[in-house]
From TrEMBL, chains A, B, C:
Keyword entries, A-Z: Membrane, Transmembrane, Transmembrane helix
Localization (cell): Membrane
Protein name: Ammonium transporter AmtB-like domain-containing protein
Species whose genome carries this gene: Pieris brassicae (White butterfly)
TM region(s), chain numbering: 28-46, 58-77, 89-107, 119-140, 146-165, 177-194, 214-232, 253-272, 292-322, 395-416
This protein's record includes keyword Signal: no
Annotated Ammonium transporter AmtB-like domain residues: 45-419
One GO cellular component term: plasma membrane
């Protein structure tokens, strides 16, 4: 090797050192560390499960909802589509790996997690909590803040899920309590804490520009909205235990969604100030409230007419929420960019209340062998719960979820204000520019 | 409560009264009444079915076709994407609830409808008739007109479906007769009656502007077109009775679609006036004609080569229709915005004729146990139909469908001209502005 | 018939002759001839298979990947979305018909191909090779060149597939060797030969304009990218033989994709020159490299931690490839518009090497009855291969694939320079204008 060669090697080494140094200082590097930590945990704790649940229903459809559904629904902002799609993907890809571990932590055998397709489905479902929270602070939280929140929220969400499912043994097949309400009120807590002392007037000027849709961004948002709507029956029915329970879940969700959709269009037009014009915000979101509202009771014997009624109620509740409640909350310092309170929050609470009502009406005569499929604790043994006890536990699981999520979200949001998470300045909100190389 | 409080209550009551009054006068309020009527009918007549058909094939894929497929295909107009997506959703959500009742009306037991996942699938399929009709008058019918037409068409379509399936006992597994041809000629009837005495020249000036695509609207339309294409094998095979019948339906539809697609590209280029350039209208629509043309015969023993031949024929027929027939019909007063005659109408008639041909060739030797699965009335009992009788019934079911749909559509279109359905003025056509709050 | 009538008939005949003459000269007419030839071959050779494989897993999901996934992923260029979607569809619709014959040619019984749903799936999978190659020359090959290349590549690809599967009996369940690496290096071969003596400097000026995305084209590309990502577990697991093998394939692919996604975001930001901004090219493509890299080993007992590790490695490899290797190859005359080398090529080679490693570690104790499902030639009979022999054959199948694909691609690309295939001039590249009627 001659002198020139030596110099070149030195130059290359120099380049590599600079790169390594730069890399160590780049903002998402802690995430690579976390990803490597996940890898190590998988090496230590995870083994392949047997054939059980290899044919679980609804996995692929739920997967579409998480990545296409949530991702595209949030592209409605005119200059935030890259962030909506990109962060949705980044967050969910991180969270599904993390949630699979956190959820299984409560059910390990011999310190081992046996991974099956069902666990993948449950990880997907848990990631929805984080994506709902993302919707509450869409455009106002930085990438690092979102990732920090996601990691905390997943752990808290899995703990709350354990309370709902294993402690209260509450029926929550479509996750309206433990997923939708949880994600929404965690998000509102984050939003409250994140904004801190900022007042609306300070930010008003620039927000006017970017906090809204363009013609095409509202069209791409519809990709997400409609796919969520289409696969919601699969989502709500995925974790049912018998074929008849499965079919009831599909039928009720289908009917509730259809009724909520019709109601949403009617209400959107009725509340318009411009000659009955329809509002895309309602159409993209309130149509889906029927899936949330029926979620936790869809496998129960509620009756087809009741499913339609629940859908009508959900559509009403959601459109009214967008029209009157969201502006009010925003003035109170609880911003909610996507209006997750109207799509996931209130309809989730509605569904939680319905579980208490229908649990109190459940009888062995009507449910037959499905009784213990739907209400795990109402089995026929000596220690079986009464319908009244089950109703109480349903109610408690809702209250606890609301408390854990809102308090957890508020604390997490407060911690997320740390400067090293690079909070956004006012003029950086709702803008892809700060996160992406734009064409 | 002090005086101030009393005044405030009064003010609130006043507000509520105004809101109630306004609401009663809003244009979509009759739809809410209809939605509540549907709820009542579901309470009275609908119960959960047993486990039968809980695992019906093709439901989710068909669901994607109805809501994503039809919805996005119709976004091709530059300034009508919100209406295409919104009304497609509104109409289908209403119709699936209504069609489930109308279809089941002919098969009630003890005045009860036992709802299963299969009934949901059939409701989805029936809603396609309304969406095809929507395509014929896309941009020229008002929202209220569309909703009025949808409610009537569903009832007439279910009656015609009963004629085809239960009276003529015709084979129509993919619905090319009772769904595609029905929807298309109902739509052309509506279009003829709706336009009334308007002449082309009167409207020409403003239509030039909005009755066409933009670069991006043609891309979003491809989302719909390709999803329709992808899931068409699932659609055509969803209601097959045996595994071998199912597999034949999938194979034939797949091959016919592929051949139609190749033929469409070749023909589109060949008929171009600009150096063989391709036309997006053909690509978005004629590619799908292969699915319609093979639809009613796809579960028969037609042979793989014949499936390819049918696809080639469908592509030819459809592109030629777009190029020469649609402009002619428009001049005759039968506008057809999406060219549903070329995608659903003529290929549907083609498929209907093919059913008569292949029914006349059907033998017990070739079909084995599938014979009565494909041709219900050709069972082995004493009263079984001959192949010739079956062919005649196939032909009659086609003729009756054409008559019922076109006459029904024309009458419905005429009724839809009533002023309270707010017919569009010429300068309101193809324009989201009148229906939507635009950004 | 009077004289006028005679004149009219003559005029009509004249028109038809002109049309026939024009048609015979149109550019895609040879494709219609090929389509008719395919029809004849289907009439002669293809019959319906029995019920076997009628319920094959993953067909519909793979179908979405081929037509929506690949199609929309390639819409990222600002002025080439119609061509990306249109040619993707045209090519795949042609190739699936052709591949079904070419693949089955090696397994005919009594000169007959018995078509089943499984054969449709395999035809879909083979068409991916052509679409990957399309990605390498996106915007720089004419429509006729693409169609010529597709027909040749399919035949060569099926031959190579036969070598891998039937001669070397290599494990390649997700096709990372015979589909991804093959398609990528065939594409680079085509790209090298197609460009010929053109130098970068000649073309630089106009290319700057169109060889890049717009804000909305990057959003539509995400539709393709995310659907590919979502259904990759279905793709990799579609051809597994047992339920436990299937579940392993799904789990490993899911974990590898998730880890690759997180890694891609981190690396994209780390390598950015602008304060850690993310690059859509990486996000749309390198996220998927995890699916390719784990593809050929996903049904083996690699362990969940290893699946995560493979994903991390794939993300690293792919982003580094986009950043440093693609510009270098372009300067060497091997253009690669979509960077297929970084998404399909190198991750495919990575996966091929992994197959040799994991084959060498395979034991009857660990695999149980899955051993011969995964490694066909390692059965228990006297002539069974040892793990070492299997590893060697895995390695050979990779080497042979690389050689056949690159040499085959280079020859095909050279032949595709024939003038009658209408090669593009420099100023016609990356432009829908020459192929499409634009609004």
């Amino acid at each position: 090797m001659d002198a020139n060669g030596g110099v070149q090697v030195e130059l290359e080494l120099h380049k590599i050192l600079i790169m390594a140094f730069t890399f160590a200082n780049m903002k998402y590097t802690p995430l690579l560390v976390f990803q490597i930590l996940l890898m190590v945990l998988y090496f230590i704790f995870v083994k392949y499960g047997g054939e059980d649940d290899h044919n679980i229903r609804g996995f692929e459809d739920t997967h579409v909802m998480i990545f296409i559904g949530f991702g595209f629904l949030m592209t409605f902002l005119k200059k935030y589509s890259y962030s909506a799609l990109g962060f949705n993907w980044f967050l969910a890809a991180l969270v599904i790996q993390w949630a699979l571990l956190c959820q299984s932590f409560y059910h390990m055998k011999d310190n081992t997690i046996y991974v099956t397709k069902k666990l993948l489905l449950e990880a997907d479902i848990m990631s929805a909590t984080v994506l709902i929270t993302f919707g509450a602070v869409l455009g106002v939280a930085s990438g690092l803040q979102l990732l920090f929140i996601a990691i905390i929220e997943t752990a808290v969400g899995c703990f709350n899920f354990w309370l709902v499912a294993d402690v209260f043994k509450a029926a929550d097949v479509g996750g309206s309590i433990a997923i939708h309400a949880f994600g929404a009120y965690f998000g509102l807590g984050v939003s409250l804490a994140l904004k801190g002392k900022k007042t609306k007037s300070e930010t008003a000027e620039n927000v006017v520009d970017l906090n809204g849709p363009s013609y095409i961004s509202d069209v791409t948002a519809m990709i997400g909205s409609i796919f969520l709507w289409i696969y919601w029956p699969s989502f709500n029915s995925a974790l049912t235990n018998s074929n008849s329970e499965y079919q009831r879940a599909v039928v009720n969700t289908y009917l509730s969604l259809a009724a909520a959709t019709v109601t949403t269009f009617v209400m959107s037009s009725a509340l318009s100030k411009h000659h009955g014009k329809l509002d895309m915000v309602h159409v993209q979101n309130s149509t889906l409230a029927g899936g949330v509202a029926v979620g936790s009771v869809c496998n129960m014997f509620i009756g087809a007419g009741t499913a339609v009624a629940i859908g009508i109620g959900a559509g009403l509740l959601s459109v009214l929420g967008y029209q009157y409640l969201t502006p009010l909350l925003t003035r109170l310092g609880i911003g909610d960019t996507c209006g997750v309170n109207n799509l996931h929050g209130m309809p989730g609470v509605f569904s939680g209340i319905l579980t208490a009502v229908f649990a109190s009406l459940a009888t062995k005569e009507e449910y037959g062998t499905d009784l213990t499929g739907v209400f795990e604790a109402m089995n026929e043994e000596g220690m079986a719960r009464t319908a009244g006890d089950q109703a109480l536990n349903q109610f408690l699981s809702l209250i606890v979820t609301l408390a854990v999520s809102f308090v957890g979200g508020t604390i997490t949001g407060f911690l997320a204000r740390a400067p090293f998470l690079e909070p956004l300045k006012d003029n950086e909100e709702y803008n892809d520019e700060i996160n992406w190389e734009l064409p």
